[in-house]
Amino acid sequence: MILHKCKRLVLLSSKNPSFFYKPHFSFSFSLIFFSSSTENQATNDLAVTDFLLHKHQFSPETASQVASVLPRVKNLQKSDSILLFLKESGFSRTQLEKVVKSRPGVLSASLDNTIKPKIKIFQDLGFPANDIAEIISNDPVVLYRSADNRVTPSLSVLKSLLGSSAEVAKVLKISGWFLKNDLEKTMVPNIKFMKSCGVGMEQIIKHIYNFPRFLLNSLNNMEKFVKTVDKMGASRSSKMFIYAVRVVSSMSDENWELKLELFRDLGFSEDEILVMFRKAPQVFAVSARKLKKVMEVLLATGKYDISCIVNCPASFICSVEKKLEPRMQVLMILDSRNLIEKWPSLATIIKMSDIKFFEKFVNPFLNEVGEVYMSNGANRNSQDRIKEEL
């Protein structure tokens, strides 16, 4: 059909050269090439879908999705070599699908210049095939990073800090951000700065695992975070210091001020806010909704007030549904029936394990509170024990 239209255009132009200058020519000419492009893309999509579906057993959904976003693939044989190499390197079909879905362009990448060098770096450092496959499939961007300027130096820094390839692999499975940043310009100076603030390496290493992006801030920002923490009165000798810096780093200046304002609105004085921050800075990362809910549950008992919460800010971190509400319900029922002489301190209730709470406040009064404790989200182990007793 397209060939027929082209022949007709040539014939018309030979009889009337001014034809090409008429408005209808622009529309006809665009239509021809639009139709051609659409047909070519459709052919390409079908070829890619068939290739992934039948040659490499991708799911129909993944094959179709990749084909729809992938530019024209000129050499499916090249794509086949890439996928076969990754399979031989230990990638499962599921991991291959993750890589291709995340980075469809990998099918057109250079096997020798892009893919193989990155795999070899991990292999030379002693990473098992399954670890390499998991790390890369979790974040395929590493395949596009410079081997000499990013991947190798980052792995070297991590290994010097963590001690072994196994520990490095554990961290990279948690987050691939360490291979996206220049660690010599971020993590290394930040660690040196944290140590100068009195933070021990044990705590620093713990934060590498638990909060991967924390030490990847710029040094200038890290210094700014520390100034904020110092202003809040947190002691650099406290084990809570690095947690305080991490919490501040997780918020913009505007959101930090909003969080302080929220505590004021909840009824806390400036001094009380400072006390809570020094005791449990993690509380300042808790959502506004949860902070309000915890306040509501505790104050509704009539036994705990703001001063109790200030003395035990960790109560804001507890699960409302699984810990606070069930325990408060039990204590209120026991109190209404004069089965307890004195309410335990909030700190005691928060620190008490589920089993300890069960043994002291539930087991002796199963008929009164057993069912309530279960229906209000008690810990599964406690529920099982209640069922046995009943």
From TrEMBL:
Pfam families per UniProt: mTERF (PF02536)
Source organism: Forsythia ovata
PANTHER family: CGI-12 PROTEIN-RELATED (PTHR13068), TRANSCRIPTION TERMINATION FACTOR MTERF6, CHLOROPLASTIC_MITOCHONDRIAL-LIKE (PTHR13068:SF130)
Lineage top rank: taxon: Eukaryota
Classification lineage: Eukaryota, Viridiplantae, Streptophyta, Embryophyta, Tracheophyta
Protein name: Mitochondrial transcription termination factor family protein
Swiss-Prot/TrEMBL keywords: Transcription, Transcription regulation, Transcription termination, Transit peptide
Gene3D superfamilies: Transcription termination factor 3, mitochondrial
InterPro entries linked to this entry: MTERF, MTERF_sf
Family, similarity comment: Belongs to the mTERF family.
GO BP terms: DNA-templated transcription termination
